[in-house]
Amino acid sequence: MWSAAENASWGRGVAGGLLEGDAAPVAGRLLGNGPEAWIAFDEEVRRLTRSPGGLEGADRLEVRLCHADGRVREAALAAWRRPPIQLVLVRCADRVPQVRERARRVLGRVVAQHPVRNRDRARRALNLPMADDPAHVLTALVPLALRLGGREHGGWAVEQLEAALSGRYSLLAAWWRPGLASTTWSWNSLTARQREGMFERLAGSADRPTRRFAARVASACGQYGARELARRAATEHDPVTGRTWTDAALAAMAADGPDDGAVDALLGSRFAPVRAAGVTALRRAGRAAEAVDHLTDRAGQVRACARWLLGQDGGDPYAYYCELVTDPERVSGYAVKGFREVAEQADGPLLYPLLHDPDGAVRAAALAALRRLGLVVEDAVLLALLEDPSASVSREAALGLLRVAERLDAAALADRTGPEWPPHTRRAAFRLLRGRGGSAELRASVAMMTDPEAGPYARSVVINWNWLSTLGEGEAHRAELGALLARAAGVLDVRRLRLL
Q: Residue of 99, 156, 293, 321 with fewest CB within 10 Å of its CB?
């Protein structure tokens, strides 16, 4: 899938080729590209037609629809020809009122008269979905309409699409009924089957604004029940769209009563806001006792909702967390994180023993909890934890030592940056040496320039280092600085080396 910039570049290229005599249909050249390609095509044609001189493809309908002169654009719309429907949609947001109004009338006619293949005539007579059904056409127009919706006059198409999806009268929803002409405007609304198909295609679109639009309209018009809304919320990857589905599911359960299937779908989501909504829905469903199962969720938002629900049900989250952290069989890293969220400094004795737990996640969570509660851990203990097999424990130990980095032994830390140590130990020691500053940071940075992980940051430190200031402050001998400078010569600019 191309990015927006790539689509726009392609659209400009197609416009340039068209005005140089390219005879290929524009709709075919831009088929499969995003809405940015059509917008860029329109802007590029308008820019090129402002320049004096004849253009080889100036008589093409696509060029006249995007011409810089509004009278030319209006005349192109008046021609009884079938223009590219995307360009007609762009003209519906035109700044010229006459062009805009005519384009809106033409768009409805083009949608209603969209070609149908002969082999689809029987399917049309049986009221079965067809590939060229106007509902499919409207689905394809949604991404472009949403991009144009930000313009001063671009909201009209979005409003018409919302009306069509909601089952209301819409100028764009005219469609063929068996025995009626395709230009019949008496029934300007989509059938339930067409609307359902549109929602399915829009909700499954790869375009994020399109999925958000589908979720918003479907939620507003009550297209789905609580269970289906919850299922969509649980499987949606876009946070904004997922929140829309989640709010709609909660509203549906508030109006129609709790649904255990919907609640379970919310609780099974991979996304924390959706699971949090499922936890809050447990109370209305009469399942508040399940709150304890979510006190150790991996997301703090879900744990907070579980504590609230447990408190509303008369339980004590603090007491439950105390039981968890003192039980070696049940304690976990997320249990310690939850305990830290309700603990106070007086609870330190419950956390210190966890520094020796066999689970690295528990040790790391205990270190983080002690630091955030303002409790002191001895330097010797933290220095030993720098060599912990768990990277998260080593990282938390380094964070705890940063405030006292100046009093640590720089030589011992430098030894831990050697290649014989695990990467997370080297990173932790390097972080503490950077925290010391001065010549200790410079020595560590020069030594770590070739490190696979910390190397990029170390090289940036060396490149931006004030070598003359270090020499003037007497933090290192001239000979040592010369040796460091020689090792760093490969990353320093030649002009800077001359100054040094």
A: 293
> Residue for token digits 């876009």?
238
What is the identity of the amino acid at 490? G
DSSP code of residue 169: -
Cβ contact 138:86 at 8 Å: no
Query: What pLDDT was estimated at residue 470?
Result: 67
Burial 240-266 (b: 16+ CB within 10 A, else e): ebbbbbbebbbebbeeeebbeebbbbb
Place of tokens 């609640």: 263
Q: Residue 161: CB partners within 8 Å, gap ≥ 6?
A: 138, 141, 142, 145, 170, 172, 213
Distance CA 345, CA 153 (A): 60
**With left for phi above 0 and alpha for psi between -120 and 50, is residue 257 left, alpha or beta?**
left
Spatial distance between the Cα atoms of 65 and 360, rounded to a whole number of angstroms: 66
Helix (H) or strand (E) holding 243, with range, is: helix 239-256
Side chain identity at residue 383, one-letter code: L
Indicate left, alpha or beta for 127 from its phi (over 0: left) and psi (-120 to 50: alpha): left
Containing H/E element for 346? none
Say if CB 261 and CB 249 are below 8 A apart: no
Question: In 10 A of CB 443, how many CB atoms?
Answer: 18
Q: Quick check: 262 and 251 in contact, CB under 8 A?
A: no
Q: What are phi and psi of 297, to 5 degrees?
A: -65, 155
Interhelix angle 272-284/300-312, nearest 10 degrees: 10
Rounded-to-integer distance, Cα 40 and Cα 56, Å:
20
- Please give the sequence-ordered ranges of beta strands (E in DSSP) within 130-207, or none if there are none: none
User: CB burial class (10 A; 0-12, 13-18, 19+) of residue 183?
Assistant: exposed
pLDDT mean values, one per 10 residues, the chain (500 residues): 88 90 85 92 92 74 92 88 89 95 88 58 53 74 95 93 84 50 48 87 94 96 94 96 97 94 96 96 94 96 97 94 94 96 94 95 96 92 94 95 89 89 92 86 84 83 74 64 75 58
- Phi first, then psi: give them for residue 495, nearest 5 degrees: -65, -35
For 382, the enclosing helix (H) or strand (E) is helix 379-385
Distance CA 17, CA 10 (A): 10
Scanning 79-154, the segments in alpha helix (DSSP H) are: 85-91, 97-112, 121-125, 134-148
CB pairs under 8 A, 24+ apart, for 20-23? 20/56, 20/57, 21/56, 21/57, 22/57
- The candidate with the shortest Cα–Cα distance to 198, out of 114, 130, 139, is 139
